[in-house]
Design goal:
It is a single chain. With about 230 residues, this protein is an all-alpha fold. The chain has two domains: about 5-55; about 70-220, no CATH class. The protein has nine helices and no strands. It has helices at about 5-30, 35-55, 70-80, 85-105, 110-120, 120-135, 145-165, 170-200, 205-220. Helix 1 (about 5-30) runs antiparallel to helix 2. InterPro entries: ChloroindolylP_hydrolase (IPR018770). Pfam families: Halogen_Hydrol (PF10112). Keywords: Coiled coil, Membrane, Transmembrane, Transmembrane helix.
């Protein structure tokens, strides 16, 4: 039994003790049995529920989207976007940025994921593609599969892989799940490579060139997208 489970059991027993204590206390003041039990349960399990809520890990808050700068707004307008289009585009790309940062964090937590990402040049590709979309907002419709299917799927798959991989005791079934997950992640990374090639089809003659082009872009512009203006 791990420490967390042990603590939960102690709190459950404490809640039961509280129920009994409150019932006897109220009966000592001539309160009827039924109301005493109801009040006891309410108090005891109210405390237990409060404890369990406090044990839940806090979700990371998404970074608030900063107001668009005048320069950036003019750029979007020059690309034919309306004010509604600008709002939608910025919210979409802010969500994509959060997913990319989550993917990078996940990959850095597992050697297997690092190997897959390096083989497919995944982190460089998704960051360069992110930058390209930001610079060509009028082409948002061309990357709907990347933004709404492949990127969120990769974020979800890598998050689940890391969660399972962190289990202290792993059965054969666990290793099988990890292996199948790794294969699916590899396939998703390959799909993202195709997304990048498709978006940059005028610059890339074949799939082999995409690695060199993306690496040159990352080397020139830097790999950090966290502070990129949207």
């Amino acid at each position: 039994m791990n420490k967390k489970t042990s603590n939960n059991l102690v709190m459950l027993l404490l809640a039961l003790f509280t129920v009994v204590f409150v019932v006897f206390l109220l009966e000592a003041f001539n309160v009827n049995r039924t109301p005493s039990i109801i009040i006891g349960i309410f108090v005891g399990f109210g405390l237990y529920s409060k404890y369990m809520r406090e044990q839940k890990p806090e979700k990371k808050n998404k970074k608030n989207l900063q107001p668009v700068s005048k320069e950036r707004e003019q750029f979007y307008l020059s690309k034919g976007l309306s004010e509604e289009d600008i709002t939608f585009f910025r919210e979409t790309m802010n969500n994509a940025k959060e997913q990319i940062l989550q993917i990078e964090e996940n990959i850095n937590q597992a050697g297997k994921l690092k190997a897959i990402a390096n083989r497919n040049n995944t982190l460089n590709l998704i960051k360069v593609l992110f930058k390209d979309i930001v610079n060509e907002p009028d082409r948002l419709h061309e990357v709907d599969q990347f933004l709404y299917v492949h990127l969120p799927s990769l974020a979800e798959l890598t998050s689940k892989y890391v969660q399972i991989n962190q289990h202290q005791a792993k059965s054969k079934q666990t290793f099988d799940v990890l292996e199948k997950s790794a294969q699916t992640i590899d396939e998703m990374c390959q799909q993202i490579s195709e997304d990048y090639v498709s978006f940059r089809s005028t610059d890339i003659s074949d799939l082999a060139n995409e690695v060199e082009l993306a690496n040159r872009r990352i080397h020139r512009e830097g790999s950090n997208i966290e502070d990129d203006e949207i």
